[in-house]
Batch of 4 targets.
Target 1
Amino acid sequence: MTSEETQISEELKGCYENLIVIDIGANLTNKKYGRDLDSVVQRAKDAGVQKIMVTGTSVRNSKEALRLTRLYPGTIYSTAGVHPHDAKSMSEEAQWGELRALAAAPECVALGECGLNYSKDFSEPHVQRHVFNKQVEMACELQKPLFVHEKEAQDDLLKILDEFGNRLPPVVIHSFTGSVEQGLKYIEKGFYLGITGYICKDKSDGGIRRLLSERILPLDKLLVETDSPFMYPNMRASKLPLHVKDSLTERSMNFVNRYCTFQRNEPCALPAIVELAAGFMGRSPQDVALATAFNALKLFGLSH
């Protein structure tokens, strides 16, 4: 460990009992938070969410995410990127200059959300690949991590990333919902996986639950996120194992039950997601909270 990493680790151990967590992906620019964002951020803090990364999905959206970092300094950080659904919007060179300026801001800690999504045809696949490639190039130039979205496009996504070789910065697969085989491909590349409330929805024998329960996903490559207002953690899911439900504390459940719904998830749900992940992994929530917070602080430089 470097002296900086040791310092971060010691600071987090001081908060060990409070289950301090970091949300690496929340869409707080969504109109669903238009009337009460102050309350949403305060609830997150009360729940133990120390820092929140607000996801940029277009030039306009990335600009708004960066604006929030100035309203909530030290708590909110932003990403800047173009989601594959919005790839067709990047038709003018001036937009790329604007995106680069947003991505270069010190409060912006990653390039993305960017990637490929072949499950829907909002943008043609060849357009998605072109726009993703340019964002990977930008991340290499700025040496900022990549915040990656992928649905039904793993082979093409890995092919593009492989072309950058050793220039490639750290890669986070945001809101991972794939199979064990897909997860293994990312893990073998040294990528991080972001886990959300989807952990309650996944009923397959070969998905994220198995990656966690068989400890295929190393703790040092695990990150947690709410993807608010999406990915509500439905703790009443019928196929959620009893030993996992037992890992949930009354405090974390209260935040979810009082403030979160299927229509609007919030960052205050993150401690429950950490506890669920810990239940599947057979680890203590404190260990998972400490590891994921440390991973996020180190990877995105959120302590600065």
Target 2
Amino acid sequence: MVAEAHQNNIIMAKVSASDEILPRSGFSGSKEASESNADTKGVQMEKRISLFDGVSIIVGVIVGSGIFVSPKGVLLYSQSIGLSLIVWILSGVLSMVGALCYAELGTMIPLSGGDYAYIKHAFGPLPAFLYLWVALLILVPTGNAITALTFAQYLLKPNWPACDPPYEAITLVACLVTFILTAINCYNVKWVTSVTDIFTGTKVFALLVIFAAGAWHLFTGHTDLLKTPFENSTSSPGRIALAFYSGLFSYSGWNYLNFVTEELKNPYKNLPKAICISIPAVTIIYVITNVAYFAVLSVNEIQSSLAVAVTFGDKMLPAFLAWTMPFFVACSTFGSLNGAIFASSRLFFVGARNGHLPAAISLINVKCLTPIPSIMFMCLITILLLFIPDVYALINYVSFVEALFILMSISGLLYLRVKQPNAKRPIKVNLIFPIIFMLTCSFLVIASIFQSPVEVGVGVLVILSGIPVYYVTIHRPIGWLTRLSMRFNVFCSKLFFCIPNQEKED
């Protein structure tokens, strides 16, 4: 790792002096980029994300593997259909409250990086680095790996209708789709947003097909499965917390637009608008999809199915159309992974820009104006996780750690209200929203300690392991690590045709 943020400037001087790296014709490789960077702004990522793209990113990232993996998780812990639907609704409401709080943070601190930028602004570099450390090891690559594996499983399912596809085939296809989307993200931001827009529409259509089939099933008199919705409902706070974890996992991604604030057109208006459009839409889609599941499939069928949507399609759609359900689900997860790679790569880009990761990760390609090293780095970590046999077991670790750092971000909002009362806040939510969200996150964190102490313990150990890393590489850096990072930076500059970005730092 590089230890000091100012080393970016050192490497910038080296790279700028090298004729091998910088083209004599200018930084940009396209006419449009050349015109936009012809002045003193230098090389930096452009504001290319519109309101429609922002809504597509949020919906596209959220509606991915979660709705197809987590329904049985919510049902398993809540133990009844009625309580499951309540958990789905409240998870959406809670995500909306959190997203509104993040709208205040995102417009007050209009920097990419999401939680990392907000925690750093409120509490300083060490807590921000610990978030980055955990995001690097668990949060982001685990979510991406699970989405990629879900894509592969649904894509291959029609070829193995009577059993699960081979593990090796699933892993190979997951690696392939990760490579393809990494290449798209490296090449062109407009390609990324176009893919997101197209596949967001595809996944919404697939879920509406499920709802239409379920509604037809109900209207034809098949209401037996919904007659006693609250039978066997759990009353255990720990199990309710775990049900919410599964539900909230399906809403993961509501804060991803905050990761790319610097690339969003007119963020003061479009960030809150995108949130207010996308989160209610996702909540409605999720609830009606689950009603369709519960109307057609019994509790035992849902809990025993590894691909709930495929089981639903096999039961409700004609034989010649049943193959379309796994295809649509694969399209859904494809779009979700695309948006997640785009947003998450910006998190590590910003961390490197602030000196908390190797400076090479903050480099920008001079032709495509994309952070290629950061995207490639994220791809490498995801590929490594794909070879863990039971990567789904990491969901519990992800949920606890994510809830903990979201709690810290919301606490930072309240802290900044006191510390900086006169700071510019284009959006200022009612104080009751961050308080409700903070209390809910606190309940989830505390309840999980009693319900899943092993997972919580491992998550805490991963967080604490970042402290010595911080002091060795950043606070009091070791000389040879610094020199190694500088050489690696120059190597990546030449390999990926990149230079350090010239945007403002936090």
Target 3
Amino acid sequence: MYENLILKGEKDSNKNCILSCEKRKAEDSDVNKDLKKAKLETKALKAKRPGFTDDRYNETSYYIENGLRKVYPYYFTFTTFTKGRWVGEKILDVFAREFRAHPAAEYERCIRAGTLTVNYERVDPDYRLKHNDLLANVVHRHEVPVTSQPITLVHIDEDIVVVNKPASIPVSGN
């Protein structure tokens, strides 16, 4: 049940406004029921959503070839919930506009093949998105090889760590 704050204004003898507030329980209306239902549906979908666990990362493996570390190709599921601005729009239109890594024809092929799904179910390219729809797009990933040279430690003290990182290995600024 949701609570609302009610502000009441009173004037004191010096004509100053004194505000007081009290909590009031909201009535259990259809709007509140719909909101609760949406939250439950979201929790259920999140429970199915693939996470970034150790098991997930252990699905990939790599090998060394000609001085390069290469990752074996693997499948990955990109997921996102429907954004408010997408509600009522066709799934194909949203993917063609918002995810421009591929042309619309490729997204249409994925929808028809069932690798691009809504709530893990196959839909038509004309499907109109609803609140809390979970979009999942399964892709076959091929990662760029990096050097197999080791990362060596050059200097370490309590203020700084200096490493000799080969140029092909990506870093994060965090």
Target 4
Amino acid sequence: MANNDEKAKKIVVIYAPPVMISHLAPLVELGELVAAHGLESTIVLGGLTDDAAAAASSSIAEGAATAHPAGLSFHRLPYVTRPRDVPAHDYVLQTFALARASNSDLREFLRAASPSLVSALVLDFFCGCAVDVGAELGIPTYFFFTSSISGLAEMLYLPVIHEQTTALRLRGHGGDDHVHAPGNPPIPLHDLPAAYADCLSLFLAVAEQMCKSHGLIVNSFRSLEPRATDAIVNGLCTPPGCRTPPLHCIGPLLKLGEAGTNRHECLAWLDAQPEASVVFLCFGTMGRFNVEQTRQVARGLERSGQRFIWVLRRPPDQDDGKQNTDPDLDALLPDGFLAGTKDKGLVVKSWAPQREVLAHAAVGGFVTHCGWNSVLEAIMGGVPMLAWPMYAEQRMNKVFLVEGMRLAVVMEGYDKDMVGDEEVATKVRWLMESDGGRELRERARAARRRAKDALSDGGESRTSLLELVGQWKR
């Protein structure tokens, strides 16, 4: 926070759920941008328990703090007790509950900082219950939505959807039924996030809390999702009688072109490949396949005949309590796969620098779980996608990507027990060799141009950010 010599400097407090790393990363990017424009920025981590997972998340944030510029700091609220009535396996419900348990500590932190110096309180939607804390202390409170504008439109409209849809059907048992939100393509019920049904009352509360806020900040850009943007701005997504807060589209928030001290081996391998010739397969920090699905992917890649980089994590059915260990490739992959593909493919254990890979000229396609951070990285790289959603809002993102933005095609069978090797081979080959794949690649490159324009001087996202920072400074 500001010291005694900097009392006049305005502070923006960003309240983040620490166990959601996919949310924490763009929130930190936002904090960096705010600090770069002359405001103090503090990332507050609430909802922490003293268990290993929360401690690891906190360590990641604290480690990041040392690498960030002056003006950006991190603060960890006191540990809270995990509610006994919250199932240990339900991380969504846990995150909501633990954020609520930290409300009183957040209130004391803001009071100690002097509310008159806090020009804005920015909340992740998992921390939406803190909107009342901001109102109590007279601090303008905003939401930062880390996913798409289309996803925000869907969430704002959720109370209306709920009125029109029974709880049973909302769980995805409605056959061919779809839900319709203004500005979005129809979404099959089975592609809605499971948490919408399992924690429905909490998400309905988030929609209401957003309407009480001073503004909605989104990690996307208007020209990528014009219909959803217009629907929100025109008040079509908020329930009758609710106000629509101002919308600030400031994305993509990504650091591209930052090279580490040690360049990953896969980038050197890519240097030797022809332009747009490599398919990159990566499924996020939590995306893992069982042994049989892993082998189906391997057979499909080999049958496709295409160059590939595949980030492969240890299957859950091989964990034996060691889920963070690297996979044993020889035991996991089909006999002869590594030898048969050594001239065209590279299997990387557990992790690769995804942003740098997708920005590399040799990459011509991306098989992705449709996490929003990954989608934005693909867009900034101008890389078309094969959509293989797995959890959370990824199935809904798949609909937006395929039906709305037209930057992806779906890997059929994602919603079944198994995606077969024939489907993998056919889709990968289609993406890299067909006229349809070339058209998809051209659309992806056009999206990259729009993204770069949005972030440039005078661009829509940069202008929106500067307007927002200007408000906070005043």
